[in-house]
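Re: [help] complex structure
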Amino acid sequence: MVAEAQTPVRTQVPSRLSMRLGLRGWVYAGRYPAERYLYILHRLCGLGLILYLPLHVWVTGRRLQGPEAWQQTMAILSRPVFVAGEILVLAAFVFHAINGFRLLFGHLGCALGRPEYPVYPYPVALHRQRRLTTALMVLAGAFLAAGVWGLLTK
Amino acid sequence: MAEITGNPEGSVPEGGILTLRVARYDPERDRAARPQEWKVKILPGMTVLDALFAVKEEQDGSLAFRCSCRMGVCGSCGMFINGKPRLACNTQVNELGPVVEVAPLPNHDAIKDLVPDLALTFRRHRAVLPYIIRNDVAEMESPTREFGQTPEELARYVQFSYCLKCSLCLAACPTVSTSEQFLGPQALAQAYRFVADTRDAGLGERAGVVDASHGVFGCHLAGACSEACPKGVDPALGIQLLKRSLFVGPPHRAPAQVVSAFPEGYRTPEAAERPKAPPPSV
Amino acid sequence: MRESRLWAFHLICGAGLLVLLSLHMGLMHYAGILALLGWVREPVLSFPSVVERGRGAAWAVMYVLLLGFALYHGLYGLRGVLGEIWDTPRAARFINAGVVTFGLAVLVYGVAVAVQAARL
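Output below.
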């Protein structure tokens, strides 16, 4: 037994070191696979869309002020910075919708396969969905390309 | 780990020297993690845990880490190794390259060096009532016979019953990284392990815990937990099946009943055809 | 209310949005392609075509439904995101009150616009 006098005096140091990642744990997907990156994108796009929605509702209300006010608003919205914003909104929607379609099934335990005996190499349900995930992301890319073309040629 | 990791380029062969970089923390003197490096000679079949032992035995006896079985069964040595939560005893150093970086498990408190505080993990686990819940109290108090369960019924939950409670999935989960209240992949997958057990009738009781804020709907299917799991438990799958169970009920309609007893002295018809044991020689 | 009910409605709204918002975005952003196919004659954002769409009862119902789905789906998501950052019961009450107030305000304004636009 160490005598009490010999024990180091505890100064005001925390007795635990918190390794909680905080928001860094959301945005840093590091060496995790594709679905972990899709989670970040899905969340960012969703947040962007819900912040955009009230702005969009306000813009649609401008038509009540008459044709001049509407044309004025449309003129402002045709500036490059707003067109770029519109492309971002479209990209966010296309991705969020198509990835949301995948999640809709996943969250209900569909298209994930059944539990298996964990024999090495271990089965991972999301890996069984990879083809679907890849196909949906290709589809999202195609929709986005067509949408951007549509926007720029409007 | 779900993927078989080979021997990637840049890894150091046996007999080479490994740089072990550990994020250390001494509650008596540190306020933040303090990196320290050692050189370790690589031996055949060396795991990260072996390398840590080599340091502790030969270079710095003050290095603290927790381990028990050294064979991936007890779940004590969970650490953050080269960017992923892994079991130190289950990770060969030659999979990792010449520099191995080890830190305490993310999303946990470190008690000292690489020793995480798992108390919260166990509290979460206990919260989901991780045991068979039945309504026939008499049978539970004084059991007469076993409950029937087919191999197919066993297969519905056996994957989730392999959980070690090593907390690697909680270290990987993005929701846990901000929310201490979230039950986390370990506990939720265990909730499903019992919900899917044909002997169980406790979905309603568990729903009080998992079907609440910071319950099962805090999972957004990022899948990191299943990648981190060292035993192939696939918590992400269990959690999604648990969500489904909350809407459509458990996979079985009614809890399994005790199997009917055979009459005293009963022999199956095949028993007569089986060769008899030789008479005792002494 | 049980979280599963709120969450199920989040999913139902999400599925509704997949259909309605795809129609809306299709008309707005894929107008070039729709024009090539001959489905759209006038520019979709010109004042006459905007007013014309606002007058139809079916359009008005669609827009109000779209707004309701989008607000519920989006604000339930936002509530989840915020609730995971500030996870105390007190913060939860504050977040719930915030998203409900904000959602109702935008919904009321949006419905008022739709109703008035129908009279234009």
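Strands of chain B lie at 17-24, 34-41, 78-81, 84-87, 99-103, 109-112, 115-116.
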